[in-house]
Specification:
This protein has 5 domains: 123 residues, no CATH class; 53 residues, no CATH class; 174 residues, 2-Layer Sandwich (Nucleotidyltransferase, domain 5); 72 residues; 130 residues, no CATH class. Helices cover 44% and strands 13% of the residues. It is built from 21 helices and 11 strands. It has a 7-stranded mixed beta sheet with strand order 5-6-9-8-7-10-11, sandwiched between helices. Helix 16 crosses helix 18 and helix 16 packs across helix 21. The protein starts with 31 loop residues before the first helix and ends in a 5-residue tail after the last helix.
Length: 598
Amino acid sequence: MSFDDDDNQDDCVGETSDDVSPFSTNELFSSVDELKDWAKTIGREVGVVVVTQRSKTNAGGEVVKVWLKCDHGGSYNCTATVRHSGTIKTGCHFSLIGNYLRQYNGWRLRVVYDTHNHELVQYFKGHAYAGRLTPAQNVMVHDMYRNRAPPRDILCNLKSKDERNVTCIKTVYNEGQKIRKEDHRGKSPMEVLFNLLQDTAYIHNHRTNPSTNALEDLFFVHPTSYMIYHAFPHVLVIDTTYNTNVYKMPFVQIVGVTSTNKTFHIAMAAISNEKEDNFTWVLTMIKTTLDNCMMLRVILTDCDFAMMNACEIVFPNAAKLLCRWHINENIKKHCRQSFATAEEYEQFLGRWNWLVKSSTLPEYESRYRRLYDTLIADHKRVFDYVNINWLDKYKEKFVSVWIDQNLNFGNTTTNRVESAYSLLKKHMVTRNSKLDKLVGIIDRIMVSQLTAIKATFEESRKKKMNHHNISLFNELRRHVSCKALDILWGELNRVNKLMEFGRTCRCHVRTSCGMPCACMISKYLTSDQTIPLVSIDIYWRKLDFDPLFVDEDKGLDSKANELVEEESKGRKKKYVVKVPFTSKASLINQSTTRSPKT
């Protein structure tokens, strides 16, 4: 036994002779890798991280001898000038030698020195070498990283496949950094972004500053979003979010809604400013992607005036609605402090929401007067705020009596796009990602959304719900979405209530959703007719991804329109047709009270 530095021998403690060392073995190993794996396994059991010190090859380049040491062996020469650095090296003399024995065609391990001048390892998770990835693990990490899996999921997968794995999250991050450097070598961030958009077949466009050539606005549509949007161009829900990218650019998310009530991403845009010009450019890009498909019918936005003006410019014929949730949040911000208790504020909010949901003009005027009477004495400032800032200017964009005069398919808030942003944040590793990372995240989200939408299409075409199994729906089942049948089922339940209490139909389902309302359904019942498929708007009949061209949107057919006209004349006297229900009434009662089969 010999050492380069004999002085270090005095620091060694607990010296173990060769015959009692846990590394002593007479086993013949078939390869050098098998020998090293065995030594590392024994080292893990006794608290030693065994690493390769050096190796020797013969003239043919084959390894014939290998030296193994403890990871505390050797010395560290610090060359850092800025970063603070440290070392675990203590000059430990632990040493093993593996030799290839030609006469036995195998490898033998010999213990040179089995003594350490440091405490043995208690937890291997703090040792970088012990947490190194094996070649197989490296391949798995690369595959998952390229599929945009977050590091925490990659680490969990590593540990689930090997319970002895001691890799730390930092190792996964470092490996991801290596992959990014390899992929982005010699490219600027913008080159990486546009190459990714091109390679993944995104529909995209951008604007740059003429003087600096810096990116100002970027618009992109996933190819799957493009396909779904052409099938469902009816609804746009738009909102702007922040803290999504390292460039601090506001991020515009635009989502749509399918006939089965599923949300899908339509387009995304990173803009330099939240000005009318920027929003107009984004919406113009959206309009351009429609080609010769039908134009959208309703746009939902928050209370951003620049966005509202841009919508009016680009889509003048679409109904523009304001998000009720954002309005309530603004009211809370400006009015909550005017009320002494939370109970008083909740009572006010209840009256306000009651006013917003007014379905007729007389109803609106009555509720408006009640709100005025309750606020004018003690909370005049609150009444002035809601009246001047919201009702006087924008009541036609969020109060039911006005918004239900146009098709909105039941959408009154931008909560769908808020949920889409929440989903985006779940996939983001950091709140400020590069734009190419956002593109990759959208790719993963669209795979999930497409699967969910296809599942609901198949459910509507194949599945027959118990409460839909009535003769009135014979023409509709498997031809319209289950969501549409649920709405019609609700209207069917209203028929008897309207008859019992002598209330008006108000026909908001017909005007806002494009389907027969309660008074029309009563006509079908009395004449023993089923609800015709043509009386259902094309939106609810769409259960595929074929593009919806302009001439396909015919709304209600002539027969259905005649029935609507007839009902309208009848409502001049009475809002709902009085039907002398006999067996029909019992049929409805049975249908509305029957419990689903289990």
